[in-house]
């Protein structure tokens, strides 16, 4: 099994203490070639952290961007992968930075047996979160006096094909590589969903994050600690707005493509849960949550306040890009042992810091 092949010195002391409790034997082979299509405002930064941790622990290679995204919002091109062309087109184990999906180009970079995953979020809560986070970046949001005004009459503020306005309408559809301004047609929407199902092995749901982690762990044959995460890039200073049923319906109509997409994969998600077993799922979620709480108690300073984050004024998808929100940042306990500090530091390491670290490891001379 996964742990039987590891030397005792390779197991972190905290993992060794809980090996019997947290790590049941796995009679399968862990997958090490994973492509994660990182969508926006869907807890994707949290998943990116666990992928970087797994890759770092097992010395896997990442297809890394030259900056912090693969020339987003343009379609992905293999030329945007650092080192790909002057390393004779080598394949990588993992790919996880923001892109607009382009299947042939991604397949030219990743091995044939790659496991493809992505994550969706309910379009209503996604729209509310996006309005706050991308308020200075998406022109439609920037020109709206309030979220309520935007919901009431989005066409008053939205100009199709204006750069970064895809963040204001059918953003998931766009990230997956399709036309987010297309008129909704059931036949074409069904065709797109079928294409996505042919490409991606598993679509996670941010709204059911813990259940997604349980299913992901089972699909990848990873250990529990591999999928235990702390929240990343989450806001701290504002609660989601309470919308009326009529406003929610307006947002579903405005994001009709994303709404169809979400409904389709919500259905297949719960079909997977049924096959996995409801009682088994409840048990695994409880174990996951208990482990997260144990690691939070070990790693994180309870009374620390998140620092204020500088707002972006729309210079592209860059660090700390927020509108009206302050983003959470974790603070480590000060009395950690050296080994515990190493473990905890990895768990709180943010996207850009981790990307820089992996780039330095893979390209030490540049």
Automatic annotation (TrEMBL):
It is found in: Golgi apparatus membrane. GO terms for cellular component: Golgi membrane. The keyword Translocase does not apply. Keywords: Glycoprotein, Golgi apparatus, Membrane, Signal-anchor, Transferase, Transmembrane, Transmembrane helix. GO terms for molecular function: galactosylceramide sulfotransferase activity. InterPro entries: Gal-3-0_sulfotransfrase (IPR009729), P-loop_NTPase (IPR027417). The keyword rRNA-binding does not apply. It is a single-pass type II membrane protein. Pfam families: Gal-3-0_sulfotr (PF06990). One of its GO terms (biological process) is glycolipid biosynthetic process. PANTHER family: GALACTOSE-3-O-SULFOTRANSFERASE, GALACTOSE-3-O-SULFOTRANSFERASE 4. Belongs to the galactose-3-O-sulfotransferase family. This is Galactose-3-O-sulfotransferase 4. It comes from Erpetoichthys calabaricus (Rope fish). The gene is LOC114641769.
